[in-house]
Specification:
298 residues, 4-stranded antiparallel β-sheet, alpha+beta, Nuclear Transport Factor 2, Chain: A, 8 strands
């Protein structure tokens, strides 16, 4: 079959392929809406002819261009959101750096914000601090009340005076103490006779005794002086222990443990220690506490 296709000579710089077809570059330019480089004065009829010749290029409509060129509202909002997120991250990083530098991490409040100190500023924390303050105030008030009551009690005792029970207890304590002191002193004197000062010794013993014991000792003063002079006895007494065993009215019994260091002719000039346990009956009178009886304790 003969080939009836007429081939047009290609003009220099027309950019068309043989047979009146456009080249691929021209079709791309036509699709973009640009004039052909090879035919600046090409008419619309030629473009139509080119489309009629089977060109696959399709010109984009202005509506499509406007849709693609104008961004949607959502796309416009996305950069703003990203920028806001970057700002928040920068602020958070700055706050964390400041906390790390100062060593005081922030704390989250009840509304989600951070405050200094790191502990949550919640109602529970407020309640705990309020409870501690209340306990502290209660303790201070208690101390204040006690401090005020002590002077009041002392003043009441001075103004009103002691009760009968308090007075009885005070008298008993004083009686025991004074009788015990008098009994200790008598024991030291009684167990320290010296033949060189026998008369002075007998006077001291009689001054510390009363009743039958005083009379009995007064009747034996001469005999005691004669015996001590014969053996040339010298003694020194010391109290090891003493205590009150009974209190009855104006009479108090005192138990005494005493050692006597004695030296005489029978000991060949050597000191011998004798230990005595006696009960002294102390009697309170106008002259104070005097010994009314002496009984050895076995």
């Amino acid at each position: 079959m003969p080939d009836n296709t007429h081939e047009e000579p290609s003009s220099g710089g027309s950019g068309r392929e043989p047979g009146g077809r456009r080249s691929g570059l021209d079709r791309l330019r036509a699709a973009r809406g640009e004039p052909s480089a090879g035919a600046p004065g090409e008419s619309p009829s030629e473009d139509a002819g080119a489309r009629g010749n089977g060109s696959t290029a399709v010109l984009e409509s202005p509506a499509a261009d406007s849709r693609e060129s104008s961004p949607a509202p959502e796309r416009e909002a996305e950069p703003k959101k990203k920028e806001r997120g970057r700002r928040l991250r920068r602020r958070s990083g700055s706050a964390a750096s400041a906390d790390a530098a100062t060593g005081q991490p922030g704390r989250v409040t009840g509304t989600g914000h951070e405050t200094e100190g790191g502990a949550p500023d919640t109602p529970r924390a407020h309640d705990a601090s309020a409870s501690r303050r209340q306990l502290l105030l209660a303790g201070l008030l208690s101390l204040l009340v006690i401090g005020l009551l002590i002077p009041v009690v002392l003043m009441r005792d001075r103004v009103v005076g002691q009760t009968k029970e308090q007075k009885a207890v005070s008298e008993l304590v004083d009686k025991r103490a004074s009788a015990l002191a008098a009994g200790r002193q008598f024991a030291i004197t009684f167990f320290s006779p010296d033949y060189k000062t026998i008369d002075n010794y007998s006077d001291q013993v009689q001054a510390l005794t009363t009743g039958d014991f005083n009379k009995d000792f007064a009747g034996k003063r001469g005999e005691l002086k004669s015996v001590l002079n014969q053996v040339q006895s010298q003694a020194t007494g010391r109290v090891l222990a003493a205590g009150v065993s009974r209190v009855s009215g104006d009479s108090v019994d005192v138990l005494v443990v005493a050692d006597q260091d004695v030296k005489n002719k029978t000991t060949a000039g050597k000191t011998v220690t004798n230990r005595y346990r006696v009960q002294l009956t102390m009697q309170q009178g106008p002259k104070g506490w005097l010994v009314s009886g002496l009984t050895p304790v076995v």
